[in-house]
Here is the input.
Amino acid sequence: MAQRFPQALTCYVSGVHSGPNPSPGLGVARSLRQAFPHARLVAVDYSVESSGLHSEVFDEVWVQRPWKEMRLPVYQAAIQAVLDGGALWFPGQDLEVEWMAGALPDPARAMLPGLAALERVAKPAIFASEGLPVSIPEWIGADRSDWDLHAFCREHGWRVWLKGPNYEAMKVRDWPSFRHGRDFLSELWGTEQLFVQRHVVGAEESVAFCAYRGELLDCVHMTKHTQTAEGKTWAGAVNEVEPGFAEALRARIAELNWTGGGELEYVRALDGTLHLIDWNPRFPAWIHAASFAGHNLPALLVEAAGMGTPQPVPFQTNQFTRIVLEVPVRNTHPLPAVRQANDQSGVGSKHPSGMTELSRRLRENRPREDEPVRPGPVVVPAMASDLEEVAGNGAATPRRMFLPRTSRERFAQVEAVLDAQPGGTVEVGFGYSVKTNPHPTLLALADQAGMFAEVISSAEMRRALEFGFPPERIIMNGPASQWPDGPGAGGPLMAAFADSPQAFERWMCHGPPEARYLGIRLRPVTFESRFGSGLGSVERFAHIVKLLKAMPAEQEMGLHFHFASDVLGPARWREVFEGVVHWAAAIEQSVGRGVRCLDMGGGYFPDDFDRELLPRIGAMTASASAMLPELERFFLEPGKAMAQPSMALATTVLEVRRGSDGAVEAVVDAAISDLPMAPFYPHRVYRRTRQGEWEGVGGGSDRLVGRICMETDILASDLKLPEELKAGDRLVIGDAGAYDASMAYNFGRGLLEDACC
Here is the structure.
């Protein structure tokens, strides 16, 4: 009969913090105590703020110096001595595992995988997942150009996560939050190795396992029932792993020659597919819940290492929850001093075990290249010709420049689509949004391309009339579409849409704008908007139907919807479009009058307009006409897609400030007042090289700051400015032709608004 405790068993268990973001050490220790009551358990951590040090499950505690102060070779020798003395080591932190796997000359008694295995399970690719019934959600490295990163986020509807290589994930909702997250995580973890990954809607599950020298000893499946605000497990259920998954995992473990605990975290999507988001090289913090269910995984590792046979584990339950308990503090390790209210260090709050410090230490020990440079924009032929023509003439700056070839190419695309219309009962039209840029040349190009003018005020309407758009090629909408008072259009507009039920009621009482199609703007129920008429209740829907029924019998009915595509992403925008068409069909049936005109916008990012909207116009038209049999006009308003690339801002460098840390800040004569959309999407920056060629400026951490005394006057903070940049050099900021132009304002020039002069 095997001796139950053949020798003194000592286990060092590291990573023992127990808080909202717990480490696994406490759970590992409880399972070890359950299986080996006489074992000597030593808690290891790197700060007295690690709360699990005070648990009575530990016989001793071994608190090390913080990672930033630690002499790593000395600590390495100390660990090796512990292992050589016969103890086992259960690491509880990903980065600690990584460091120990590379530092220890003989890690045989350390329950951790080797470096080769760690490379195979590293995020985001997780190559070791091949053969498992999982897929890796789409991702993109943060070392790609800002232009590509912005496109990836739009493609996934801004339902994405910005993640570090080991820890931390931040939900990104827009470009400002992405830039903030990138700066924050890079600074916190001391690495540029970040990536962006699409969010998967579904239930979070995981599989925890233990293995010794490539043999899978056991594995369990856990479903999260409730989570903390940080997404950490608070309650869940432990069950057997699906046989197919377990067998595939067994094969992967053998290939990796894995030793130690591990956890695969994945999302079960609504269609049942599994999407792997992490492969942790240690046990999860909930591991003792597996022991409740009869699977004591830490104990199996001890047994596999030949250190004794564990006591049998009785099955208690497969469900678990966490509670908060107060425990007495060890006299030998009193609490740290009371943190001062003005202490902003954040130390101990989320990472008391100092993993952020270890991350920076590990990065310091690696060969350091120069600061990584994200690729700059490609200078396409039309842009190169435009820059040569308009930016190289030495004119005064700051100066917004019209880019003729680039602009013509954009409007030619629309003209080609209109020319290629196959005919039929529904005529497709494009509306040029005058508010994006009422520049005469752009209005002329829109006119020549056969576009309609979309206006949001009487002032814009009169601007369109002035530049040759007849009333029947003008579409009016907006919350104050008839402001300011003045001459009318002189004839019926193509369409006019009230922004609210109140506005439509006013039209019916006092006379609506003269228009071929009259209607109302709809506000879909799936997102917040201050515009349009909501459809989120039976009462609201009935009210809209009642209003539209009140129109004169001879008036043709139209409906309008507008929401910026680059906020939703083109895929979600199309989903909303389909929803609006169904709502329009319901309105048509309830009103008893056909929807003759449907006007859809807008706010398309130029690349999305070219790649996503234009190729789908035929399908969208067919979808709308199938639901609305009396439809005869289908308008699309691309918004800024037409104007944004049409202009650039030339600026001159006034001063170059080079910090001792290598950071560069260039002060230029342009300002945020010339580029008000600078924080909200990436602007491509160009410069002329000493050889006379135009090239895009790559990405880094250098800043381009403006001339005015505003803290927010930062034109770009993600550039890698050229080493030779000096005062007097010129830069050209692209993508400045839409709201950067129409919303620009005077500031710091000694000028007042015209109305005040």
About this structure: The first helix runs from residue 25 to 35. The chain is about 30% helix and 25% strand.
